[in-house]
Amino acid sequence: MATLVLDNGAYTAKIGYSQEKVSVIPNCQFRSKTSRLKTFTANQLDEIKDPSGLFYILPFQKGYLVNWDVQRKVWDHLFGKEMFKVEFADTSIIITEPYFNFTSIQESMNEILFEEYQFQSALRTNTGFLSAHHYFHNKPSELCCLVVDTGFSFTHISPYCRSRKMKEGIRRINVGGKLLTNHLKEIISYRQLHVMDETHVINQVKEDVCYVSQQFYMDMEIAQMKGEENTVMRDYVLPDFSSIKKGFCKPREEMVFSGKYKTGEQILRLANERFAVPEILFHPSDIGIQEMGIPEAIVHSIQSLPEEMQPHFYQNIVLTGGNTLLPGFRERLEAELRSLVPAHLPVSVLLPANPICYSWEGGKLLAHHPDYDEMVVTREEYEENGHCICEEKFDI
Amino acid sequence: MVLEKKGSARVEAGQRRVLDEATRQRRLTRQLEALEKDNFQDDPLSSLPPPGPTARLPAFSETEEPEKKKRKTRGDHFKQRFRKNFTTLLEEENLSEKPEPNYLSATAPPSSLPPRHFCCVCGFPSHYTCTTCGGRYCSTKCLCTHRETRCLKWTL
């Protein structure tokens, strides 16, 4: 029997069989200005030659699955013959969902997996559980682990002790990659060029030029300088999707510090935007969100746990989710935690090689675990007992 | 006379409309809500003339007849039961009566650090507050831009 692992994120689905490699695929549908009548699903995004003004149709709202029509179109595509060719009667699925998922969403999920697709068996779990499983697999001597998952919709801090989650320690910060991109879009549109329609392009700008500052106010001073001295400033060449397929940063030696470029490309000049945008993860109050930043929330979470466990959590922090790929994220987090945590406790923050797929890899390991068959709910069991059996067996 | 000239900025402030705390809060909420939007623009499909009554556009044209039929009934079933948005779902959960921890109690509390202020025009650290709307600015130049462009925007 095959096992399909699906980390069903709000922006990308991480999917693959437990014997194979992972694929990261957009978990949404698109419409494009150039072919208005067609709706593109998931990785059909690659077929769109001119993705300017790309329109997103997302199955998730604030991180929770609400638009089932879209989700099922994406799943039909992923499970279908073009992609994973799932033999449902002979396949087990591991699928993820957010913390404190709503009961009605969970029940819809059961119904769709068992009644519509008719999977042989299923394991519904939280993304953090798979990450923690991965972590404990690599470090079998550790007892505790704190998963920081900062994704598209929000950021979760979740403590795990011997693969059991400690619900009372879970903290959510309502800042994610979507908010960062939208904020960047907003300030660029106000300060230089109207790009409100260009979520897709500006998301790429964010991934290419944004970084987490190590000394915020010093970087602010540098960003304010004129000409060559301003080492923070970058000129970003926007794609026009004919001769320039993908945006890029002008190399430093080609930058024109005063006056205009003669090449006629569309340029965005970015200085404090580069680090002020990711800064929202560390200080949500900068834009008026009255919540703690990640380092403070980590301390708040750990302090709510039994005292004898606390040192173990500070030593085993693991970062997952796309935002952790911002350069300098790990270093800044570790430095801020160091100054918040008592000096005699060691602090260690791990950034895995692939933080986006870390939990998927955990799911892959779980599928090969000897106890896996006891963790799943089979279709027979579901048909016999309904939703209760899922509620009983799944720790969510 | 001299006194009046000196305090011109304040006199001017007195003449300008000053937004109260509730309006400022409402404005902030709207700004934050805008940051949650999936798209700023309208659906490109909606700008086309509406298709005929029978043609709700299928995502994939080449599916066989029997499967199409099955999917249609499935869709109806889901439309009735699962067509809810986030806010409705959250209300339905009735979390205030459920034991903690839950979705609401897991939200990170407000920070204990003092808030930092940035110029709403250029993004650099700011020292001054706009008397009208409470927005921050860093220099006269930015204040002028702010007044001309955004000061009373997003106010009902």
Strand segment tally of chain A: 20
Q: Could you describe the largest sheet of chain A, including whether it forms a barrel?
A: 6 strands, mixed
Largest interface: A-B, 69 and 53 residues
* Shape field of chain B: extended
Q: How is the largest sheet of chain A built, in terms of strand order?
A: 3-2-1-9-10-20
What structural category arises from helix and sheet content of chain A?
Answer: alpha+beta
Please give the radius of gyration of chain A in angstroms.
Answer: 22 Å
Structural commentary:
- The complex is a heterodimer of chains A (396) and B (156).
- Chain A is α+β, with helices and mostly antiparallel strands and 396 residues long.
- Chain A has 3 domains: 2-26 and 61-129 and 356-393, ATPase, nucleotide binding domain (Nucleotidyltransferase, domain 5), CATH 3.30.420; 141-174 and 289-350, Nucleotidyltransferase, domain 5; 177-279, Actin, Chain A, domain 4 (Alpha-Beta Complex), CATH 3.90.640.10.
- Chain A has 15 helices and 20 strands.
- Chain A has helices at 68-79, 103-116, 127-138, 177-191, 199-209, 216-224, 273-276, 279-282, 294-303, 310-315, 329-340, 358-367, 372-375, 379-385, 387-393; strands at 2-8, 12-17, 23-26, 29-31, 40-41, 55-57, 60-61, 64-65, 91-97, 121-126, 144-150, 155-161, 164-165, 171-173, 234-237, 248-249, 267-270, 317-320, 349-350, 377-378.
- In chain A, strands 3-2-1-9-10-20 form a 6-stranded mixed β-sheet. In chain A, strands 11, 12, 13, 14, 18 and 19 form a 6-stranded mixed β-sheet that branches.
- The mean pLDDT of chain A is 94.
- By secondary structure, chain B is mainly α.
- Chain B has a domain at 118-155.
- In chain B, a hairpin with a 6-residue loop joins strand 1 and strand 2 (136-137).
- The longest helix of chain B has 18 residues, at 65-82.
- The model of chain B is unreliable at 1-8 and 63-73 (pLDDT under 50).
- Chains A and B meet through strand 6, helix 1, helix 2, strand 14 and helix 4 of A and helix 3, helix 4 and helix 5 of B.
